[in-house]
């Protein structure tokens, strides 16, 4: 069948231990050098679309030259890194952090090196068992209720992202509900969130076949600090019931993306329960803070939720990617996502031995051994170490907030719950006051981010108010970076106000 | 808000360059030593459920001791590795390979070290642009039609797994169809595959809200080598149309999981086209072989498919995880999976500059910089190197097949297309003949896999025939491992036949 040039049977050297050692040490030094030089890079490159595509060849090489690996690393340094947004920069304050640690990064290296595929227990027994142990370790460290842990009859797993977690939970809830009301009523199902809920949820709802106009985004208000109101939720659910529709699923958020608003989980669960609605809590960012006991209050009432997810890759030193998901009833996941035939076998095995086949818990069958990374992070930093890490960012955020409050030209727009500060420049009356405030702050953000060695921040636009977001959470961020960031904001604000005053005085 | 013990603002050392260097070199040596010692491990551990859970502590440590990292690595060596299935073992012939290379593994290390989150172009411009370039490089290397490449108006991306790829394609097709026929007709949609199609597809269909009984698994036959018959597909689609249902989606497979059957893509596309059906081709395993021009014929007619996916992590040296997906009309993906508001912005940007925001192409928003790994693999091994790699496995599979054929006690059950050999022991007439063949081969597989330093194989059960699967594709596999594996199979077969003859002679 194969008509190829004659060669010896095996391919040379592509997984040779000595070659791995040689190239591996190169890569380690490369990454360490990158961390060393991190401060030299502008956080965000000033490049235009096409800058890289236009210079790369249009085809892969046929036969690489000698030291192709060294020359590729050189291209990473010279071509790619200058065009990256450096999420590990101590001056990266945009979005949410992509939390890195030496152990998290090396955990990934170890996972890739060992390269097993633990889709069933048998496909790599130690990997499945470690996952079951570590997901309980993490759940306990985060003060989750026992009902979500294997130890309490629930259970968890490690996925890639929150969107996957929500989709798994939603599909489980959907199939459970359709089994009750009839498989042909998918068009009657309605899902709920707030207007602050991350787009992941609407994406998951669409993927799961929920009608696009059956996703209720309950409006939130500045007065409630943009938290989802149980009263409004109840009204929305009742209206749907009255219209003959079927409330299915609520996605509550602890720490929304725009302003880290905290939905009142306990009260929302009570509303949901009265309508037989599955409650998922998305704590993608803020979940990491639950490692500190002083945050336990934000998950009051969590005993009633059906599923919970958070991303250790966001703020728990676990490097991209890792989302942890826990559910109260793993059997609902398996019923929705399991392989039919093996489902029966698996249950029997689980009854006897208490192990799971994770392929039946998630969207994907192939999966990475993410538990190894989380285990290493917990082993090497310990629960106390993770608390120190979170608290150091909280203190820096508190300090930043204090500086904003101390400058009367600025205001902190929403209450700070975690390590995100949402603030804006007040627009002076003589420059148009509230009418020009959004425009003024857009310009401020642009100029702050344009400063080559300055901070990189992002924005929120909530309830009509445009604000700057300073999310402190990069592992390399120190007090001085926060102080410098604030100085850049002040300087740019002064310059903008000065310019605008001149323009206004000339015009007016 | 935070009432924590007083400490300095930043957390010590968790992303310190020197610490990374020290621990990183340890990890590299650890992995290299693992590769060196790979042959010493039994491929599959003889452990029982609970073996690891029972010995691990029930809680994460509070404050780790000195050299926690070194001691964790020791536990990986002493506790975890002995309980793993060693997918990189040269004697791993089960499932499909989880293809490793030094460059693939180190690519993952580099991705984790740099740790950017390229969900939009702006979130890391070089990452998005590299992905666009490399996905075209790979598509060209695999001889895909231009219609699927960015260069030809299509485009591709790197995901985690095939299930994600199929789900993205299916949701795009579904929403496109519902826009035509009415959003409330999801219950009328029908999807098609063969009884050999991987479970991923049924899983994706369930997730997407297709009714469970609307997934047609067209029966295949030994006479067709278990390929999907266009005639039977046409009959199935016509029956659904006649019943007032709406054919939506066909998942064809190039290289099925059980026996690497190849569905006739071109003819199937013609049938699908007549019903307005989206065609996805899943070449998860065999797609890697397309790098060799001698396999171009298996994708004859590919110009008509709407989407195509394959897993470089299976057989293209790319380490877990990476699935490459290409689509003919990226706009269908964006319409189904994009963020509403930004959708408009994105389109404008794309028109002007030809870049994409990959968050709108996939299920997940957070994503890893997988393109870096594929770029390194293509850069360092080159297209010719990848051909050598694939052909070396093909030659070994050919040799194994020859050995099976040379022993009259055995038979090769299905035609070998790639590097999987499906074979079984014939059951002698005096031992019950065909009636006992499945049982005999089950026992043979058990005994082969029980040999401590023997090969690890898996099984297929197709058309009522149970067979052993010998999938050659581990990077470390050499001719001698294949020869040794065959000797173990022969020895075990001889022993089983001898024992059974004694039993039969005593009984009879």
Could you say what the CATH architecture of the largest domain in chain A is? Answer: 3-Layer(aba) Sandwich
Overall pLDDT score of chain A: 94
Computed over alpha carbons, the radius of gyration of chain A is 25 Å
Percent helix of chain A, as a range, is 40-55%
Strand order of the largest sheet of chain A: 1-7-6-5-4-2-3
Summarize the largest interface: chains and residue counts: A-B, 173 and 173 residues
Query: DSSP helix count of chain A?
Result: 14
Poorly predicted ranges of chain A: 1-10, 342-350
Instruction: Please name the fourth-level CATH homologous superfamily of the largest domain in chain A.
Output: Type I PLP-dependent aspartate aminotransferase-like (Major domain)
Sheet of most strands of chain A? 7 strands, mixed
Backbone structural class of chain A = alpha/beta
- Helix-strand pattern of chain A: HHHHEHEHEHEHEEHEHHHEEHEEH
What's the gist of this structure?
The structure is a homodimer of 508-residue chains. Chain A is an alpha/beta fold and 508 residues long. Helices cover 44% and strands 11% of the residues of chain A.
Provide structural commentary.
The structure is a homodimer of 508-residue chains. Chain A is α/β, with parallel strands linked by helices. In chain A, strands 1-7-6-5-4-2-3 form a seven-stranded mixed sheet, with helices on both faces. A four-stranded antiparallel sheet of chain A has the order 8-9-11-10. Residues 1-10 and 342-350 of chain A have low confidence and may be disordered. Chain A folds into four domains: 11-40; 45-83, no CATH class; 117-368, Aspartate Aminotransferase, domain 2 (3-Layer(aba) Sandwich), CATH 3.40.640.10; 383-507, Aspartate Aminotransferase, domain 1 (Alpha-Beta Complex), CATH 3.90.1150.10. Helix content of chain A is 44%, strand content 11%. The radius of gyration of chain A is 25 Å and the shape is globular. At the A-B interface, helix 1, helix 2, helix 3, helix 4 and helix 5 of A face helix 1, helix 2, helix 3, helix 4 and helix 5 of B. Chains A, B: One of its GO terms (biological process) is primary amino compound biosynthetic process. Chains A, B: The modification N6-(pyridoxal phosphate)lysine is found at residue 314.
């Amino acid at each position: 069948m194969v008509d190829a040039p004659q060669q010896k049977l095996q391919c040379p050297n592509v997984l040779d231990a000595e070659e791995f050692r040689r190239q591996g040490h190169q890569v380690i030094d490369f990454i360490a050098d990158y961390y060393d030089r991190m401060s030299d890079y502008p956080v965000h490159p000033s490049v235009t679309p096409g800058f890289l595509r236009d210079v790369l060849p249009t085809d892969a090489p046929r036969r690489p030259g000698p030291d192709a690996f060294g020359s590729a690393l050189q291209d990473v340094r010279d071509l790619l890194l200058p065009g990256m947004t450096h999420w590990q920069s101590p001056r990266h304050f945009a979005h949410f952090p992509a939390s890195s640690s030496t152990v998290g990064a090396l955990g990934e290296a170890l996972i890739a090196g060992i390269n097993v595929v633990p889709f069933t227990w048998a496909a790599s027994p130690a990997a499945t068992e470690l996952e079951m142990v570590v997901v309980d370790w993490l759940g306990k460290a985060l003060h989750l209720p026992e009902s979500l842990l294997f130890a309490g009859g629930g259970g968890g797993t490690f996925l890639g992202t929150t969107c996957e977690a929500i989709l798994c939970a939603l599909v489980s809830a959907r199939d459970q509900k359709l089994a009750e009301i009839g498989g042909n009523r998918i068009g009657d199902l309605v899902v709920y969130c707030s207007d602050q809920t991350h787009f992941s949820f609407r994406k998951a709802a669409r993927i799961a076949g929920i009608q696009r106009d059956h996703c209720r985004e309950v409006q939130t208000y500045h007065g409630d600090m943009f938290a989802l109101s149980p009263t409004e939720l109840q009204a929305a659910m009742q209206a749907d019931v009255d219209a003959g529709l079927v409330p299915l699923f609520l996605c509550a958020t602890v720490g929304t993306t725009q302003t880290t608003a905290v939905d009142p989980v306990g009260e929302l669960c009570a509303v949901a329960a009265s309508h037989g609605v599955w409650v998922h809590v998305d704590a993608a960012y803020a979940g990491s803070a639950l490692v500190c006991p002083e945050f336990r209050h934000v998950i009051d009432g969590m005993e009633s939720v059906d599923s919970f997810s958070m991303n250790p890759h966001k703020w728990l030193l676990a490097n991209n990617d890792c989302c942890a998901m826990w559910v109260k009833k793993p059997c609902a996941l398996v019923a929705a996502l399991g392989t039919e035939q093996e489902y029966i076998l698996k249950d029997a095995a689980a009854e006897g031995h208490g192990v799971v086949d994770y392929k039946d818990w998630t969207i994907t069958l192939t999966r990475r051994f993410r538990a190894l990374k989380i285990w290493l992070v917990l082993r090497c930093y310990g629960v106390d170490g993770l608390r120190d890490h979170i608290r150091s960012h909280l203190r820096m955020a508190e300090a930043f907030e204090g500086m904003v409050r101390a400058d009367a030209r600025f205001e902190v727009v929403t209450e700070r719950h975690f390590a995100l500060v949402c603030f804006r420049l007040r627009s002076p009356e003589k420059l148009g006051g509230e009418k020009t405030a959004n425009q003024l702050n857009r310009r401020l953000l642009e100029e702050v981010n344009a400063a080559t060695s300055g901070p990189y921040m992002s924005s929120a636009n909530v309830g009509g108010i445009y604000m700057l977001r300073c999310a402190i959470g990069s592992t390399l961020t120190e007090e001085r970076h926060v102080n410098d960031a604030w100085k850049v904001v002040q300087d740019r604000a002064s310059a903008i106000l000065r310019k605008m005053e001149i323009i206004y005085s000339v015009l007016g």
